[in-house]
Amino acid sequence: xxxxxxxxxxxxxxxxxxxxxxxxxxxxxxxxxxxxxxxxxxxxxxxxxxxxxxxxxxxxxxxxxxxxxxxxxxxxxxxxxxxxxxxxxxxxxxxxxxxxxxxxxxxxxxxxxxxxxxxxxxxxxxxxxxxxxxxxxxxxxxxxxxxxxxxxxxxxxxxxxxxxxxxxxxxxxxxxxxxxxxxxxxxxxxxxxxxxxxxxxxxxxxxxxxxxxxxxxxxxxxxxxxxxxxxxxxxxxxxxxxxxxxxxxxxxxxxxxxxxxxxxxxxxxxxxxxx
Length: 275
Hints:
Blueprint: E1 11-12, H1 13-20, H2 24-36, E2 40-42, E3 49-52, H3 54-67, E4 73-81, E5 84-91, E6 94-101, H4 105-114, H5 126-146, E7 154-158, E8 161-165, E9 169-171, H6 181-199, E10 201-202, E11 211-214, E12 220-222, E13 229-230, H7 236-255, H8 261-269
Antiparallel strand pairs: 1-3, 2-3, 4-5, 5-6, 6-8, 7-8, 9-11, 10-13, 11-12
Helix pairs in contact: 6-7, 6-8, 7-8
């Protein structure tokens, strides 16, 4: 069923049967069990059409990750946001993070107003949008990691799930004391520079909530990349200025650094007309 999630919101039973060759007697019994387990829901009007629930999509993604050997096990939840759930996982004794994207109606409407995800994005159901979101984050992280940027290393993706390295540290917005706040700020700006100048993208949702500072308080890792836009888009500098504005305001208020967003943007793009 997950294999056609991008094409269908509600999948006809006959499509599932054609894809799986499961006999009707077993197929409908299995579907009833999936409904009872709240992994799929039937259509309100057409009882032989079914849609994955968010949990069902997560399990389909998890099954693929395990089958492909991208992870060995999954553990406790370590992050919860409006657009994602993050779990601790392991592979060969190494700690990893698995992020399940969940793009809902509210966040979707906001994204469509300010992002260009393609002409058909607004026609997709939430499961397909979540898959698109995961694809976008995977591509951004893969590109940024190859450029040597300070981001989590990405290992793979399955439907709406992205597997990355686990960063041992603290969210920037929680940090009360840093060894060298100026150095941490410079690290964030350098990641924004690599994104803009070398990868040709702007993060699009950069803030103290999307930066993890390593346990030693020295290295900032920029996370949560699905809302990136191309640096060639008309509003790219405006969004970059907004992103860096959040960062500058945080360091100004929390650590007393005299820094303005416009100054940071100029270091990345050169002179420009400030908004």
